[in-house]
Design a protein that fits this description.
The protein contains six helices and seven strands. The protein is α/β, with parallel strands linked by helices. A seven-stranded parallel sheet has the order 3-2-1-4-5-6-7, sandwiched between helices. The longest helix has 29 residues.
Length: 235
């Protein structure tokens, strides 16, 4: 089993929800963690809330490749290396395809799909050097289409395809690539405020534990695509 203590991870969209839950789990496992987001105030607050000196807060917009390059540079300057990259930043805009605005389409594709490419592209040489692990957070919407979800489905189907192809490209460098496809998760996604009625859903810390378990797997084991659902469908 791999020892992950003192390894360094970069998590996009790390100020809340799934990204924050993953950051907390990795810190508990003894890793060093960089979290990023577009909102400087939110990302700095998340760093304080995590309450761990091994956290680096970075303001970055994954839609901007130069931001992601600078994020990786800051991580190397602070921690000396980068072992694990978790492309988690994402958003959803839902409408029938004939009513969807160009702006909503573009922001989803640019964030959810192009963003995961930017993050991997900026970090890939570090991952190759350190035999690292790239994890994208997709969704069950990456394989199950639904009405009003054309843009979101397109972005998340794309994340699954991108990550699986990247897995084939990078496995001979001993870089693992995995996409995690959660169902309903308690989060702030789509302007939702978590509440007691979300108790039946997957919790962010559950995804965090899943990531820890993935990183601890033997080097010769590569789970390339993981679907994860709540046990129940509602309260």
């Amino acid at each position: 089993m791999n020892c992950i203590k003192d390894k360094v991870a970069y998590i996009t969209g790390g100020s809340k929800g799934i990204g924050y839950g993953i950051a907390h789990a990795l810190l508990e496992a003894g890793m060093k963690v960089a979290i990023s987001g577009r909102d400087q105030e939110a990302i700095e607050k998340a760093k304080i809330d995590l309450g761990n000196q091994n956290v680096l807060a970075i303001t970055s917009d994954v839609r901007n490749f130069e931001d992601e390059q600078q994020a990786v540079k800051s991580i190397i300057e602070t921690f000396g290396k980068l072992d694990v990259v978790i492309a988690n930043a994402g958003l959803g805009k839902f409408a029938p395809v004939d009513e969807m605005s160009l702006e909503d389409w573009n922001v989803m594709i640019d964030t959810n799909l192009t963003g995961v490419f930017h993050t991997l592209k900026a970090a890939v040489e570090q991952l190759k050097q350190n035999k690292g692990h790239y994890i994208s957070i997709s969704s069950l919407a990456g394989t199950n289409f639904f009405a009003n979800g054309a843009g979101y489905n397109a972005s998340k189907f794309g994340v699954v395809g991108f990550t699986q192809a990247a897995m084939l490209d990078l496995r001979n460098y001993d870089v693992k690539c995995t996409t995690i496809m959660p169902g309903s998760v308690t989060s702030f996604f789509n302007d939702h405020t978590p509440n007691e009625e979300d108790s039946w859903k997957i919790q962010p810390e559950d995804i965090g534990q899943l990531v820890v378990d993935l990183l601890k797997m033997n080097a010769n084991v590569l789970p390339s695509k993981i679907e994860v659902r709540p046990t129940k469908t509602s309260l």
